[in-house]
Amino acid sequence: MYTIKLDSAGNVMWEKIHEDDGIYSFPKNVTETDDGCFVIAGEGIISWLAYEQGYILKLDNKGNELWYNKYRFTGNGDYLNDLIPATDGGFIAVGHAGEVEYESKEQDALLIMKIDDQGNVVWAKPWGDPRSGWTAYSIVAAEDEGYAVLSRKSIDNKGVTLLTKFDLSGQVQWEKTYRDGTNTESYLYLVRTKEGYAMLGSHRSTNSLNESKTQYAALRVDVNGEMISRELFKGPPIANVGISAVTPDGGFIFPGTILRGDVRKFQLMKLSPPVEGQPAERLLTGISFAVNEKKLKAGNSTPTVLQAVYSDGTKSDLSSAAEYSSGDKSIADIDGLGWISGHKPGRTYVEAAYEGFTAKLNVIVVAEDTDEFDPVDGSLCLDSGEYSVSEGSQMDIKVLLYDYSTQTQTDITKLAVFSSDQPDITEVDEEGNLIGHKAGMTRIYAKYKGSSVYANVQVVRAPVQAKESLRDAEEPES
User: Which residue from 45, 313, 352, 418 has the least number of CB within 10 angstroms?
Assistant: First the structure.
């Protein structure tokens, strides 16, 4: 096991390696104590037997070992996932207690145990449900003493989420089960909220075409475990979801890995804390694609970005949440995650539907052997990296292609395709004229074949005299 402590700027303060011969170490949780020490709970696999056992390690504030205890309750499958300070001293840990015998699966229990300050077991309670895989993932101290434990097990061959309230001695006070139809939920982190508790994790749904999508999710309940809301946070398809965390301001952090084709990228999402009082209702007013047209080669695929537009002016990505269809599947079709696949040259459209709203996107499929998307042989640039233009005026800009082999520069302005982040502020016509519409800052793009370049643009307010002269010129003679 490798342990590292960083300061607030990410600099290494100390790092330690703890070795246990014959044990593969998988730490699951670290808790800092009031005196600056660290208690780590996890799973150790005995390599030559492939048996699992739980362990807890306590380090001082410099990372030096104070004590290290291993715990075996059954013949196999014992491990710990979370640990917190107990309300009456010592610590409370939760996890899983496995089989009494290797193949029997008779135990298969949620495990909750209390240890003293030296790691000695005060009591341990395995709550069994044979062949269920019942496992506890997270524990928090309840408001009225006792503990709330988030767990998961299989019921009728379907994984479901449970929230169990234990008293100080590990006895069950109440238990709630949460399901969402045929969808799959995986909540791994439990936090306290003003209303009660929030379970944080992921939600996976599958459509009629057996295409699945995974989203960040939060399940909120009151102090008695009664559900308040199930919230899904739509965005790009998620490949993996990490362990979420509560932030000092009462919000949440979700780490994960998003998937775009074969590309995986780390993503971090911050959710703001609930506002005081009754929040203003945010209504969905429409949906729209981020662009009006998509062009791709036959035999290739490309993602789309579908946005939800709300009454408060905010937008959110719901590319993986809508239902999609194609106008002509022989030219191009679209899957349940919003990816368009081109089949043969031609023009068609795709349509998205979500909560009664629809949006269309024109699609052009070009020949597979076209060079339209190939990067240029050379360097593409604009004649400036920044432009300034007045409202109601325009200026010429140029797109230049520098050929390294001949060391020559060619003006390809009329061959380029222009776009603007905010066309209401400024845009570029086909001749390369930069037109200022209203004051503001934005960015323009020039694309040629498979390469593109951009520049920042500031549109400044026209002088008052110029506006008056322009108005006078527009007024007809009497």
Answer: 313
